[in-house]
Amino acid sequence: QGQLVESGGGVVQAGGSLRLTCTAPGRTFSTSAISWFRQAPGKEREFVGGISWSGRSTYYRDSVKGRFTISRDNAKNTVFLQMNSLKPEDTAIYSCAASAVLFTTNRNWGKPALYDSWGQGTQVTVSS
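The chain above was modelled as a monomer; its predicted structure follows.
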């Protein structure tokens, strides 16, 4: 599967917002679930949230519920991660990943082995 490309990262003050974008040049991921993961320095990669191929289902880690929203536009082959009310602990490299798996169990969303394509990531820094 082809590589994914993230954009939209940057530096923002606590309480601010950023919108990340995930695209897939040269391939379509309209039949793939797309998730966002993040990794902070010295910490393990963690699942942030995901969206089903149709866009009808989303799933988020508890710490971002109510602040982050994932959406997708399959016609434009793009997935978005809208991040509001950002906190310093949200600072990390954010990566998107695609999976052909139909997630019927929430706990499977966060398993990296179920994703077949990944992006290089984009840095998000939230200053206090």
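The longest strand covers residues 92-99.
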